[in-house]
Amino acid sequence: MGLLTSSPGHTRVKICGLRTPADIDAAVAAGVDALGFVFYPPSPRAVTPYMAAQLISRLPAGIDAVGLVVNATDAEFAAIKAVAPITLWQFHGDETLQRCQELASGHPWMKAARVGAQFAFDDFSLQYKDANAFLLDALVEGYGGGGVPFDWQGIPQTWVSENAHRVVLSGGLNTHNVGEAIARLHPCAVDVSSGVEISKGVKDPALMTEFIKAVRAADTKSSSQ
Fold this sequence. Notes:
Elements: E1 12-16, H1 21-30, E2 34-39, H2 49-56, E3 64-69, H3 74-83, E4 88-91, H4 97-104, E5 109-115, H5 121-127, E6 133-138, H6 157-163, E7 167-169, H7 178-185, E8 189-192, E9 197-199, E10 202-203, H8 205-224
């Protein structure tokens, strides 16, 4: 169904930073909706375009291949597009709306927000109004949330109500807190990386399965209330 397909009572799940065929197969078996491939060399989860192409070839139809880039140059982006069949782009750097649109070139894309104490939600959603989704991540040094959650209570309720259908919630999610996140925010999707790892960049099949089960349990609970 893909990451951004709206389905009431069914929170989509994206697992990011996969690097091995075994990771891909385990995530697919667990029932994931999208897998993220990191094209940012400083990250311990980074893959090359060729590696990503090989991994994406294992995906069945209907699972999004998300390409995460950080301030990519034209040449870097072209190298990814040349070999990796990305279905959804994730801009995680300082890209402007115009830059996102230029690189995505008509394909679906989402913009990551680095949410700190003074984050201006209305300004952000207005600035990136044409994004297919907003990925909310924690504000830490560098790019990426570092597996750190942010204060969900700081998100204005009116903003949540208006934008939940295109919010992908990230930042320190794991099997223990994802249920609370879904109950509070009802996002379109949730995104996890370090929360399903046994060490940095090394995914755990059991944790991936447990995370998706926790999401489904939260959906069931929300539907019954």
